[in-house]
Amino acid sequence: MPTEPAPETSDAFRQLLADEWEARMRDNPLLATECGDHRFNDRLPEVSAIAYEGRLARDRSFLDRLEDVPRTDLDGRDRLDYDIFAGVLRDRIADLEFRAYLMPVTASAGFHNLFPDIANTAPLNTAQDYEAFVARLAGFLAYAEGHIGLMRAGMAAGIVRPRIVMDGIVEALTPHIVADAAASVLYAPFESFPDAIGEDDRARLRAAGAAAILDSVVPGYQALLDFVVNVYIPATRDEIGASAMPNGRAYYEHCVRRYTTLEVTPEDVHAIGLREVKRIRGEMLALIAGVGFEGDLPAFLDSLHADPRFYVDTPEALLQHVALICKRIDGELPRLFSLLPRTPYGIREIPAYAAPKSTTAYYFPCAGDGTRAGNYYVNTYGLESRPLFEYEALSLHEAVPGHHLQLALQMELDLPNFRRFGDVTAFIEGWALYSERLGMEMGFYQDPYTDFGRLVFEMWRATRLVVDTGMHALCWTRQQAIDYMAEHTALSLLNITNEVDRYIGWPGQALAYKMGEIKVRELRERSESELGDDFDIRDFHRILLEDGGVPLDLLEAKVEAWIAEQRG
Fold first, then answer.
1. Sign of dihedral through CA atoms 525, 530, 535, 540?
2. Of 360, 367, 449, 515, whose CB neighbour count within 10 A is largest?
3. Exposed/middle/buried for residue 3 (C-beta within 10 Å: 0-12, 13-18, 19+)
């Protein structure tokens, strides 16, 4: 007979989840603010090697407590939470053991690029909110010095970034080194106050904000710039692969497992990537023949890049094009989904200071307390490299039914906090890439060029499997990776270079997209095959989405149980 759930075991497990979440909020006040916990809005995270070592010890103690909980005494919902939580802890412990935190900065990613956005994530409705914001500005110098200390420790341990991923960091930092506080992007909240804040408070807060920017923010960015240029970059490594670091092969194998949530090796993933590239290339060639183009794939790509009808001249025109696509998508969602989020999303430009080294677009989640919508950020830098035929697939991925639909819904579900705000990359990105393909069922890609845009994005994600594993496990050079993507994708050289440098600086993360999508498509095909006429696409999507992000092995078990129930 099945074991009956034990209430005392469930209570102990829930207490463990609450204790761990409380510790995480205190460790990372910026994350707490994003999650809607405003107790620490005046603080920044403590950044030091000692702090990270303390977090490692504490996570090990949390894992010990978890292993003392009899899993068989929990009910089905708690068992799923248990399994996901165990994976979260083990992955985080491995990250800390490999000391990846000693490499906190690249040109395109890190605290220096995230900090200027704090005005968009924290509430600024009262004088007290502004005082908390000023306190964070005043704490930036110590925050920057803490990250510099981590990089110094990384240099001593031989855990440093490849030199190439620091290219462009001067341009990323210098916009924040200003002589006039009003020229800082962080001064914007002091130029427009809510009506509830009186004039006396406005003058006081404006002066405090300006002082914090000039006395802390600017010196912090200047200190980081001086250190990176004069000390860190000369100590970075020529080798681009993670395997070149101490214990690097083991670290990369961990990254592969962590980001795919599958027991696969780098060589397994590389082989899958080669097969997918071959398949997608065949579909591309068939489409090219279908439009009557006489020439090979590179010639077709050259013709697209040279065709002015696929480009716009102003950022406003690009944003209008994207907005129209998104509005059309919104109207098609009920046909495929019975479960939709209540929280809306907006469209924004990627900030100018980050755009040159940023990807084509990205999604920024809504606030956990419902006070901020999700945002689909679009890169309007270098419009000559932003072909319009890509934006149907891109919008399906970044907005709906991709990231916004899935992540906003996850925020609204009755889940433990570690899952509401969790980041199961293989599920999140796999779902978003699957959503690109859903466009075919929603009436998109009617123009063969937009369908080619879909294949361009699928090929982009497939080549990631090849070049990420190639560089980090198989000794590929950066130029090999660039050449491979240039040969097989329609991405501009600017986008390819930015993407390759991103993979160099973030080992394994780019594998999540295609590996996740392959698993979701496999589960759909299995469901359709086994259920036949009883297959309901809205019900299938509900099963995928109703528990938020789930590791792929647990997702597979969940779908198999659903199939059995439908047949039962």
1. negative
2. 515
3. exposed
Burial of 199 (0-12, 13-18, 19+ CB in 10 A): exposed
Per-residue pLDDT of the chain (568 residues; tens, 9 = 90+): 445 677 899 999 999 999 999 999 999 999 999 898 999 999 999 999 999 999 999 999 999 999 999 999 999 889 999 999 999 999 999 999 999 999 999 998 999 999 999 998 899 999 999 999 999 999 999 999 999 999 999 999 999 999 999 999 999 999 999 999 999 999 999 999 999 999 999 999 999 999 999 999 999 999 999 999 999 999 999 999 999 999 999 999 999 999 999 999 999 999 999 999 999 999 999 999 999 999 998 899 889 889 999 999 999 999 999 999 999 999 999 999 999 999 999 999 998 878 887 788 999 998 878 888 999 999 999 999 899 999 999 999 999 999 999 999 999 999 999 999 999 999 999 999 999 999 999 999 999 999 999 999 999 999 999 999 999 999 999 999 999 999 998 887 888 998 999 999 999 999 999 999 999 999 999 999 999 999 999 999 999 999 999 999 999 999 999 999 999 8
Q: Locate tokens 């409380």: which residue? A: 22
Best CA proximity match to 438, nearest among 405, 396, 409: 396
pTM exceeding the 0.70 threshold for the entire prediction: yes
Sheet containing 374-378: order of strands? 345-349, 374-378, 361-364
HEC string of 130-161 equals HHHHHHHHHCHHHHHHHHHHHHHHHHHHCCCC
Residues 6 or more apart whose Cβ sits within 8 Å of residue 333: 340, 400, 401, 405
Residues across the chain: 568
* Token reading at 507: 């080992």
Which residue bears the tokens 């006040």?
A: 29
Residue that the structure tokens 């020229």 belong to:
183
DSSP percent split of the chain into helix, strand, coil, nearest 5? 70, 5, 25
Report how far residue 480's alpha carbon sits from residue 457's, in angstroms, rounded to the nearest whole number. Answer: 20
- Whether the CB-CB separation of 465 and 515 falls below 8 Å is answered with yes
